[in-house]
Every structure is written in structure tokens, then in C-alpha cells.
Design a protein that fits this description.
The chain is mostly helical and about 70 residues long. Helix content is about 75%, strand content about 0%. The chain contains four helices and no strands.
């Protein structure tokens, strides 16, 4: 099973089931070493960089991101 297939299945779950799965996945990261966590972040950064280079990522200007964040906090 690929990560894409797994994501598709996970996203088809109910909100409650997704929340439980997300919680379990986050808790599983607590047992990772600092080196493992750093490695995962580097992989994620590389993946996102590749998406930007491929033109498949949706880029949002920083000003817009901060404006939307501020609006949500009000």
C-alpha cells in the first residue's frame, strides 16, 4: 500500500475516526529520537521543495497567510 492510498483511506474516515488516528500517529512520534525527528523534517522540506519546483504546490503570499490567521483569532 502506498502513502497516497493510505491517505485516501484515512480521509474517508469519519471526523472522529480521523481525530483518533491523528492522535495515535502523533503519540507514536513521541518515541522518536531527536535525530529521527530532524530526518523526518528534512524529508518533508525536500518533498515540499519538490512540489514547488514541479508547480504542484499552491503558494500563498505571506501577507495573505498572516491576514487570514489574524482574522481567525478575532
Amino acid at each position: 500500500m502506498t502513502i497516497t492510498e493510505l491517505k485516501s483511506i484515512a480521509l474517508s474516515l469519519s471526523p472522529e475516526e480521523r481525530a483518533e488516528l491523528a492522535s495515535d500517529l502523533l503519540l507514536s512520534l513521541d518515541s522518536l529520537s531527536e535525530h529521527e525527528i530532524e530526518h523526518l523534517w528534512l524529508e518533508e522540506a525536500s518533498r515540499r521543495d519538490a512540489e514547488i519546483d514541479a508547480g504542484t504546490a499552491k503558494l500563498i503570499p505571506g501577507d495573505q497567510v498572516f491576514a487570514e490567521a489574524r482574522a481567525r483569532l478575532k
